User: What shape does this take?
Amino acid sequence: MYEKYLEINPEVKEALAAGKAVVALESTIISHGMPYPRNVETALAVEQIVRDNGAVPATIAIIKGKLKVGLTPDEIEYLGSHHDVIKTSRRDIPFILAKGLDGATTVASTMIIADLAGIKVFATGGIGGAHRGAQTTMDISADLQELAHTNVAVVCAGAKSILDIGLTLEYLETQGVPVVGYGTSELPAFYTSKSGYAVDYRIDTPKEVAEAMKAKWDLGLSGGIVVANPIPHEFEMDPAVINKAIEQAVRESEEQGIKGKESTPFLLGRVKELTGGSSLDSNIQLVFSNVKVGAQIAVEFCKL
Ligand code: PSU
Ligand code: MN
Assistant: This one.
């Protein structure tokens, strides 16, 4: 039924049919997460890292009303350089399709499309979560509900402290979503390796992550797994610098009454402006590291 909406590129299709490792990659990070042209350079480099680690990359987006799994370099360039690409989460998908528009997929919608295509591992930078003040604003990313229901493991660098990390973890616990630290017992906070919050389980090898994924889904325990991989030490930011920028961005968003789907892009954009290029460099490096781990997990999962 859904096949008419879905276009899986030949390389990805072949890999999936042969039971080979495939890693899904999101596109909001390209269109809304980084400035042109570094967004395009990063997206292409990320695909190469997936290949170097034995898996096939499947960058996911909606182009002219089609769910695309696996993009050409020209399509990545198009998404990264056009300003009218729409940030697309679960609720937006049907309308972007019906109107034949271009959509950049968030963690939630990338998980949905990866699952339709049969891809089990997805690597990105950071997930959405419960924002500061979510207990009254109800600003909780649809990413968390997707993690509750859709069977895809998401490798990320933890959650940014533009969010309320404690509330985010409580929400994930209620929804039965495991949060695993890759080589760490502490949840990383994106630009820094430490958040002050413990993870549920520390796992040190791709094989063990793959075994947990298999056990979860074999038992019908539907939903995702958050695999939180700390930013490599040499690229960590000074917590004082990044936290100051985040505090200011959060204050400005409250003053300006930023709401709904604009909230996360506003905060990410302001943090970037306030920290200059240094946060962008860290961001790119942590994505590289996550994608490598994602490819290794995908390779191990295929062997089970
Ligand atoms: N957090 C980041 N970088 C990002 C995002 C979140 O550190 O690029 C993007 C992801 O695409 C994520 C989305 O799925 O923002 C969440 O948006 P919202 O909070 O509106 O659900
Ligand atoms: Mn939100």
Observations:
- The chain has a mean pLDDT of 97.
- The first helix runs from residue 10 to 17.
- Residues 139, 141, 263-264 surround manganese (II) ion (ligand 2) (CB under 6 Å).
